[in-house]
Structures are given as structure tokens and as C-alpha cells.
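User: My advisor, Dr. K., asked me to get a structural model of this assembly before our group meeting. I'm new to this, so sorry if the format is off. These are the inputs:
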Amino acid sequence: MSYHDPDPVIRTTDLVKDFGDQRALDHISLSVPPGVILGVIGPSGCGKTTLVRTLTGITARTSGDVSVFGRDPVTLSSRQRSRFGYMPQLPVLFPNLTVWGNLTFMSSLYGLPVRRRRRRLVELLDLVDLADHRSKQLADCSGGMQRRLSLAATLVHDPELLYLDEPTAGVDPILRERFWDHFRSLRDQGRTIVVPTQYVGEAVSCDVVAVMAEGRLITVQPSDQLSRVAFGGDPIALDFENGWVPNGVKQRLREQPFVRSVRSTETGLAVVVADDQRDVDTLRRYLEAEGTTFASIEPAQPTFDEIFVRIIENDAASRQPVEPTGVAA
Amino acid sequence: MRPSVLRRPLQIATFLRKEAVEVLRQPRLLLTMVIGPFLIMAAFGLGYRDTPERMRTLFVAPEGSPLLDQVESYADEIKSYVEFAGATTDPAFARRQLLDGEVDLLVSFPDDPLETVLQGDRATVTVVHTRLDPIEQTAINFASQLGIAQINGQILAAVVAGGQELATPAEGVFAAADVAVDALDDAMVSQDEEATAAALDDLEQATGQVSLAVRASTALLAELGPSDGTTDDASDTVTQAVDELRTSIDEIRTAQSSGEASEQVTRIRELLGTISTNYDELTAVDSAVLVQPFASDVELAVDSVEGVTDWYAPAAVILMLQQFGVAFGALSFVRERQLGIVDVYRVAPVHATETLLGKYLAYLVIGGAIGAALMALVVNLLGVPIASGITDIGVVIALTLFASIGLGFVISLASASDAQAVQYTMIVLLASLFFSGFFLALDQLEGPSRYIRYLLPVSYAMQMLRDVMLRGAEIDRQLWMGLAAFGVGAFGLALIGARRRMSLARE
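Assistant: The format is fine. Below is the predicted structure of the whole assembly, which you can bring to the meeting.
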């Protein structure tokens, strides 16, 4: 499964990574165009971090191809490596240095000119809300502060491509929103950002979302299409008084050509159609025509948690061995 | 943002700064590294005794042994090593005393030394102790050998003194010779050929006895004299006089006139007088001196070195600097790997060379400052001399740090965890104490163990610093080249290791 673009920043083809007998990445094919935020979501241990580390070149692939800026990341020159930034999953700065000292270290690591770096560092400290803590030793900073500093350190050389492994973990919701604003701003400047995250809700902030499970890439979709993929169309919430669904309605709806699937919910039924805007009226007219009384009918807004769970369940179901005497759902 | 054209120097400088700040943020650690060794050396210098411990010694001899009465005087002879704790004839009691810690040594004389000696064997004196420390054991062995030599000398001196007393009647020999000369003179005046011949025979016999006595004494003097065989004046005079005496007697036998014979008689009287006078000088030597003619008086050619602190202080400074370099180097990469920062290095445009150089420089600067502070303390407060220039000392310290930091980096890159790195560092320290010459002289090692020293920077540096500081010698060329080669080798290995650690696609 891939997100196609003619001139991608990142491209992987049948990427496989094994750690001994354990397959961490299972034939990942992915293409990331410039100027997008790619969210990588999936349960813990699904291979998100391994994917990012393989894209940086830190982790060697077992087979398949990887190219970043058109080259194998392992063979990128120093200058080309300066084009991307990597924020590891855990804070990795120096506890005995101050906030400012850590940022200075990172800016020197990327060879930033001494004269111009000060302004840049001040901007970054403002962004991560650490301007008042610049003299504080990192060991005295909270986990969230260390995370924020780690993000600032990754941005210090203003890279074109950012790998941010769970950048908002341990960050409060207000600051998290600020981070995403900044990521979107960077995206608008043409930067490409790859963000593995466990916060499924953050997928809404991404342009493209890659869903992973057990080392496999289940799907890569624009975030606004993810729901359609998860449910096989657009879900419409059809609620009844007290959640009671009249007899036969569910079965009759399944037989309608504009209905893709029907399932029960706590308040009634979720009816999946091809296009919720168009088909919600069709559905309403059908119910009124057959005299079915309902409390409300409107396009559903499933949360990304629900979408994610649905995608994972669909994937698991599709991988179940088919029983010879199986019964259709 | 476009990187600076001075990116590499910037990167070296940032590693230097980072390492320096990390160390300097631990002022107590730094203080400990300077004050600690200084206090240890000061305490050691104040507490160390440079005289051997006198061991409480109990002598054991069989019942009725004449040695029982003499042991106290024997003990007095070796009182530098031994404190006389009594004599007993009960070996079991003596052993109990030893095991109870009441005495330190048992000296047991054999049951019948006379019989053993008469059989042509040496009688063995057994020394028993409870000391487990090999150095103490060596000292006891050495002291017991000295003690036995003293006792043997005492016995021999008694024998020689007896011999001298017996030899003293040499005066009788001289008297007999004088009588024979008088008789010769009378016989020659009376022209009695038979009496002359008899007097000459008597004189020849007396001359033989004198010659025998003289040869015995001059043989000893010849051993003590110069290696070219010359002896002292008295010995030469006596030997020549005896030879001349024989010649004069022969000339009287072949003299053609009474005048010639009379001259020889006069000459013989003079010679006998000379021999008698100088012979007294030869036999007047104390018997104790005769049997043990040499005593030792050890002097150090280097005037400035006075105490044990002077000897150990340079070594301690060097050992401290080595451990500073090894420990900080060893923890450096391991700590960063555990922090995870190495992943950032891998993807950043930084090379192992810049990383390593920055760290080297940081530790060199800090280690150099620690070394300078330590040297200032030991020189100014402990009075350890500096016999050479400061530059030489600086060179030794710099080389030591260079090699030690490299060794530390090699350890760091070979270690999987900080605990492992610390263990390796401790092993280096332990090896340094045993194999570098810190406590044990390197000559005491043999076989492959001798070569372990070459794996330790402290071995080279300790000798260099002692030579430079205490002897005022120039830095030994082989040693500094060896240490520099060690440092370059360690740098090379560290660079290879750092490149591997910082390379991509290693997982």
C-alpha cells in the first residue's frame, strides 16, 4: 500500500527489517511527498519507531529499498544529512548542561554560525515555552520540559525533513496544540514531517496517516479519508427512541443498493453509505417511505480512536483463516 | 540554516566545551581528585617508618646447649631486626607463644650443631614466623640470613682470636732469630766454620717460621688490597724483608771475605728489626674485623631526595592522572550511548574524529589542570623536590593524559554498560599497582608478567617523572617515544571504535 507521488522525499519499497526471528517491518512500501505531515499511528510495538530509525539510516534494513532525498539514507553525505532532523522517542540531551547549553551544543553539532545562532535559539525557546528556563540544568527539568527541549534541539538547524518520534508525549494539551500549529506552519513552508504517535487523535492534524500493525502498513490515506477506509464508506448515525430498533429495519437496510453495511450501536444503527452528504437524504426518504420512526439521522463523526480501532479490527478480520463452513456476518 | 565554514572546529570546540562543563559541574569530584591524593600522600609520608619492624624473637635451644648462654649476645648483634624476647628449651611452649602472637619469630638452634659441623655439614638454624605477607616473608628471610651471617662471624671471630693468641709467641721466633744472628756473629769473629754453618741453619729455620707467619697475615691483606695485587706498606715491607733475609743468608754462605759476611750480618739484624716492627702491625688487627672485614654504609647519590614521600609522590600523581584519563574516557561514550545521544550523532553531520578530538582536548585541559594543582601541592606542601625544568614535567603529564584518555576511550567503546566500563577501569588500576613499578620493583617480575607494564601508561610515565623530578635527568627517549606510541595507538583504536559506534545501519 502506498501514497503515490512523482517526486517523493521518502520512498520505501518492500522494506523489511528483522531482529533475529522477529519481523519488525513487513514489506513496507511508502512514498511521502514534500510538504506534508505524515502521521504514523499504530499500537505500541507495531514498528513505528523502527520505521523511522530505518528511514534515518540508524537501523539497517534486512531487505527492500529506502530512499530519502533520492538516496539511500545510509549513504547520505554530511551536507545531505543536515537536511533532516531526528527527534528520538526518549529525551536524549545532557543532564549536566543547561537548557541553553544543550541547544548551543546541538547548534554547534550542525555547524551553525555562532553569530546567527543566538536569535534562532531564542525563537526556539519561545516556541517550546522554555525561555524562562534557559539557565536551568536539564537534570532539574521535568519530563515534559525535556521533551520540549528535545524538539527545539531537533529544529535548531531548520531541516527540510523532520522525523519526530512521538513529539508530544508528556506535553500538556495547550502546548501540544502549539506544537501542531508550528508543525503545520513548517509544513506550509514546504517542510516534510514524519510523526509516529500513539495519540490517534493527532491524526487529524496530519495530512496523511499511515496505520501500522505488527510491522505491516495497513493503510496510508489522507486523514480526511481515513474514516471512509475504516468503515468502508461514510457512516450515518441513525438513532431511535431509547435505542430500540424496530424489527426488520436492519435487514431491510442491508438490502438497499445505496447502503454498504449496517451495524448496531448503543443508540440505534450505523449505516455506511458511499457518500454521507448525498445519501443521508436518500436514507431519510427510504425510512419515511416505509414508515419507520426514528429519533435522528445525520452523518456520523467517528473519533479517530474509533476509526483506528475499526481499521485494526478490519485488518485482523481479513487475516483470519477462512472457515470452510463460515457464516457471513 | 547554512552551516558555518568553520563547522569542524566548531564541532570540536563544542565537544570540548560540553565535556569540560560536565566535569566542571562536579566541583566536589574535582576537589577530591586533587585533595584526595595529596592527603593520602601526606598521611603516608607522616606515618611511614623507614626502619624495619623489630621482631620479638624467642630463641629455642636444646637443654644443656652452650648456645643458650650466648643467644642474648647473638640477638644483640642483630638488634636492628630483632627484639630479644627470651630463650627457652621447650619447643612446644615457644610455638604456642608464636601462635598466640606473644612473639613474632622463633629461632630454633639444632640439637647437636657440633656433630653436624664435624661431619662436614652446616648446622641449620630454623626461623619460624606467622607472617603471610610475601614482602614481610622476604624481609624475614633476608634478616635471618643476615642474622646467621652475624652469628657465624661471631663464632669465627672467637676462633680467630684464639688463633691470634696462639700466634702471639711469634716474639719467640724473633728472639730465636736474634740468638741465631748473635751466634753467627760470634762464630764469624772466631772464624769457627762449623759454628757459623750451625748458626746459619738456625737462622734459616727461624726465617722460615717468620715467613710462614707473615704469609698468613699478608694473604688476608692481599684480599682487601687493590685488584692489581699490590698490598699496603707494612705488608710489602715485611714480605720484601723476608725475601732479603733469605738472600743475605745465602750471601753469607757464599761470601769470599769476612768483611762481606760481616756486612750481611749487620743487614740481617736490620731486616729482622724491620720484620718484627711491621709484623706487630699486621697481627694487631681485631679478630672480629679479620673475619668480617667489610661493613656497609649506603649513601644516595641524589642529595635532594630525602623521604619515602619523595619517591612515591611522582608515582601517585601519575597514577592519579592515568586513572582520571581512563575513568573519564571509559565513561564518556558509554554514558552517551546510554543517554541515547549517539543516535543523534549518527544522523548529524559530525564525524568521529571531531567528537574524539573535542573530548581529548577537554580531558587534556582538565587533567592538565589537575596535574598542575597536584604537583603544586606535593612540591610546596610536601617538599617533594623538582630537580629538572617544569617543561619536562609538563611533557610527561601531557603524554600520560594523552595515552590514558585513549585507553579510557578504547575501554568505553568496548564496554556495553557503564558498570562494565567501571570494572575495566578498576582492573587497569589494579594492574597498575602490581605491574607498573609503583610498589614492586619491575626487576622482581619475570616471564610474560614483565611485559604487562607496556600496556599501562603509568609504567612509562612513572619512571619518566621520577627521573625528571628526583634525579634531574632528561626525559628518557625510549620511554617518551613508547608512551607517545601507546597514545597514538590508543587514539587509532578509539577512532576506529568511535567510527563504528557512530556509523549508520549498525542495528
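One thing worth pointing out at the meeting: The interface with chain B takes residues 53, 56-61, 73-74, 78-79, 81-82, 84, 86, 88, 90, 92-97, 101, 104-106, 108-114, 116, 120, 137, 153, 157-158 of chain A (CB under 8 Å).

User: Perfect, thanks a lot.
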